[in-house]
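Progress note, sequence design subtask.
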């Protein structure tokens, strides 16, 4: 275990923001982590856990220690006729886990293919896409409290999952590090393909029965076509959450904007695509010096080169103000801002 000083984080965040961590360490197992947390000189130092850096915006140097979680490993730890439990190290690339499941025809996470980041970050955000969320297959996770070094297992009901929400994003933010995640995947998959773009592509296959590989291939194709590659242009995917509003507010908006799209939610709210709101406010494809809104997907803010985190945050704030003025809806950032 090597602790580096004054470490550049430019290659550790997909926005490509060039900030520095006062100290930086990469961990590969729980013993590394326990050893790190036992160091008396680090006890009171601020700690930030990094996975793939795909959901973070740095606006300044980090005056503490950044812990890069690189715990590896994917293995099946239990199975029966219907399902199996897959235990995965928090440092595994999320997409590698999806590909593992699809290759073994284990259903449940195929719709979440091509989402950037690591497995450890997935429960924090309760990642979701195309009608599925992580919580639908989540079984449990293991982790360690950063202050005490105490190990604990969280069952599903203890994680307080919501739309892009969890206990790890709120009460336990910067207090807990996830080391392993266990998912319950299914041997007789029931693919979900109700979203229009997916169904349209499946119809072209001219098949009566679709495999989870069919689904994952199509979703990967759709995502890759509409979302920019962060290795080519700095971005963190969707910058804002899709807002949920009361039905009464939606009906009022619909009078003025009959074409407004929406999705119903299980908790009697109406979800509005944030990308549509941003596009209607004229932001799609707009560039201001080194920052801008992607020309194909209005939810994605991009770093065209040498932008600072403050530049990107300023753009995000301008977008939020315009959406409030036009629609009376306040957008919430999906990315974590430091």
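Output:
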């Amino acid at each position: 275990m090597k602790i580096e000083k004054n470490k550049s984080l430019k290659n550790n965040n997909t926005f490509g923001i060039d900030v520095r961590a006062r100290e930086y360490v990469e961990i590969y197992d729980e013993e590394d982590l326990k050893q790190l947390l036992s160091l008396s000189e680090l006890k009171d130092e601020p700690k930030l856990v990094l996975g793939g850096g795909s959901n973070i915006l740095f606006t300044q140097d980090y005056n503490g220690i950044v812990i890069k979680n690189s715990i590896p490993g994917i293995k099946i730890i239990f199975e029966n006729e219907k399902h199996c439990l897959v235990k995965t190290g928090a440092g595994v690339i999320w997409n590698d886990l999806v590909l593992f499941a699809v290759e073994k025809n284990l259903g449940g996470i195929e719709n979440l293919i091509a989402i950037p980041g690591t497995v450890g970050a997935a429960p924090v955000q309760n990642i979701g896409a195309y009608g599925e969320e992580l919580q639908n297959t989540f079984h449990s996770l293991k982790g360690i409290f950063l202050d005490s070094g105490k190990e604990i297992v969280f069952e599903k009901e203890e994680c307080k999952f919501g739309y892009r929400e969890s206990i790890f994003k709120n009460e336990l933010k910067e207090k807990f590090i996830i080391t392993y995640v266990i998912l319950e995947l299914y041997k007789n998959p029931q693919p979900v393909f109700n979203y229009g773009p997916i169904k349209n592509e499946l119809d072209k296959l001219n098949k009566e029965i679709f495999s989870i590989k069919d689904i994952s291939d199509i979703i990967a194709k759709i995502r890759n076509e509409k979302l920019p590659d962060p290795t080519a242009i700095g971005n963190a995917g969707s910058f804002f959450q899709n807002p949920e509003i009361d039905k009464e507010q939606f009906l009022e908006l619909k009078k003025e904007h009959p074409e407004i799209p929406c999705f119903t939610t299980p908790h009697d709210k109406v979800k509005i695509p944030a990308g549509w709101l941003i596009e209607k406010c004229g932001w799609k494809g707009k560039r201001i010096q080194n920052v801008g809104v992607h020309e194909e997907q209005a939810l994605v803010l991009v770093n065209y080169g040498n932008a600072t985190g403050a530049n990107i945050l300023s753009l995000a704030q301008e977008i939020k103000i315009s959406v409030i003025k036009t629609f009376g809806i306040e957008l919430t950032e999906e990315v974590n801002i430091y």
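The first helix runs from residue 30 to 37. Work on this subtask will continue into the next period as scheduled.
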